[in-house]
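Tokens as discussed.
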């Protein structure tokens, strides 16, 4: 059963409208980043310190930013990082670029948030304490000191308690000490000692990372090189497989896709990270594949109808492959939309690039690549004619 019948649309006759729209999108995609102060690079490319903090309740962003700034921390980004409903997690990006930045940044954030959310003097914060510190405090507790438990046994039980804290659904944030009683094999006296020696803080540091500015610049350049090498390799392949002119048209269409997708990132204020570069490379290959299918049909039709003008051949070939292009792209778009909606914040930028890229790539394969090929062919013929007259 054929879901989409073969069409007879004059794509080439309307090429000026499509190319005009593409030019408008490219200009907008090039201008918008500079209107917003340049592309918004993630920590991978600009360097800095990134810290993830989870809160019991919805964090008060304005208060947190003001408190961190008051402590001399230059907060580049402060935004929700949701992995699920009511996760209340924040991503804090600090412009700290020293070697010890990650540790010092986390310490300053913890100290600032404790002043903002409150703490209990002389007690440890169970949601942020480490194994060695907590085990030492439990061992020194009077109740435990009189028990027959050895230091090694106490340490192992404390390790089990911290493992429970860090696993889902707690994910680093225990809301009530009564939850600890569900852990099998843990001595009730140790839980009792924990209640005496610790309190349950309103937040927990979930992780972080540090990238130096030099490494960030190197990663930027490597990402650019990876994209250019991919485009160059495809240009050579298509020139060998078809003709040089086909390669130029295909690469121009893919370059058009990348520029417009970058513009959408700036428009929606999304960070460009390493995962986004992977998405761009995926987009380059996917869009190129759609274009090659059309060009391959052009080559086949050219063998069958040698005297038919190129414009008619392009129209015929695009119409013949349109159903395949729409169905393939539609299924791919459905998959990446599911990834965007259900994939979590970690994959959000990656899937966003794919959603936009699949749409723009399909558009360029149908409406942009063929007009570029026709224009380039006409230009080459005109130059060749002038050379012969001379």
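Sequence:
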């Amino acid at each position: 059963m054929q879901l989409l019948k073969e069409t007879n649309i004059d794509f080439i006759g309307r090429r000026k409208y499509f190319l005009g729209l593409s030019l408008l999108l490219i200009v907008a995609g090039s201008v918008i980043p500079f209107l917003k102060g340049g592309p918004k690079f993630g920590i991978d490319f600009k360097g800095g310190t990134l810290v993830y903090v989870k809160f019991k309740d919805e964090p008060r962003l304005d208060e947190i930013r003001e408190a961190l700034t008051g402590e001399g921390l230059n907060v580049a980004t402060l935004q929700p990082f949701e992995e699920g409903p009511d996760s209340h997690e924040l991503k804090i990006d600090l412009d700290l670029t020293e070697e010890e930045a990650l540790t010092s940044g986390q310490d300053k954030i913890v100290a600032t948030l404790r002043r903002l959310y409150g703490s209990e003097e002389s007690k440890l914060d169970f949601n942020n304490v480490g194994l060695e510190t907590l085990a030492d405090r439990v061992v020194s507790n009077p109740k435990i000191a009189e028990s027959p438990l050895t230091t090694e046994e106490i340490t192992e039980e404390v390790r089990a308690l911290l493992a429970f804290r860090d696993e889902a659904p707690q994910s680093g944030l225990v809301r009530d000490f009564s939850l600890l009683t569900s852990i099998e094999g843990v001595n009730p006296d140790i839980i009792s000692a924990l209640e005496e020696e610790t309190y349950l803080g309103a937040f927990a540091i979930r992780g972080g990372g540090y990238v130096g500015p030099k490494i960030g610049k190197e990663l930027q350049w490597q990402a650019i090189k990876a994209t250019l090498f991919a485009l160059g390799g495809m240009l050579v392949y298509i020139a060998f497989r078809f003709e040089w002119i086909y390669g130029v048209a295909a690469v121009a269409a893919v370059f058009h896709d990348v520029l417009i997708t970058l513009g959408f990132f700036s428009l929606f204020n999304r960070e460009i990270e390493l995962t986004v570069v992977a998405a761009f490379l995926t987009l380059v290959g996917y869009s190129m594949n759609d274009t090659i299918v059309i060009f391959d049909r052009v080559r086949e039709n050219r063998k069958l109808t040698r005297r038919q003008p190129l414009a008619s051949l392009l129209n015929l070939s695009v119409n013949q492959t349109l159903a395949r292009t729409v169905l393939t792209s539609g299924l791919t778009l459905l998959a990446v939309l599911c990834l965007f909606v259900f994939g979590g914040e970690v994959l959000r930028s990656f899937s966003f690039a794919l959603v936009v890229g699949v749409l723009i790539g399909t558009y360029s394969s149908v409406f942009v690549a063929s007009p570029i090929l026709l224009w380039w062919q006409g230009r080459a013929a005109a130059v060749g004619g002038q050379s012969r007259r001379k």
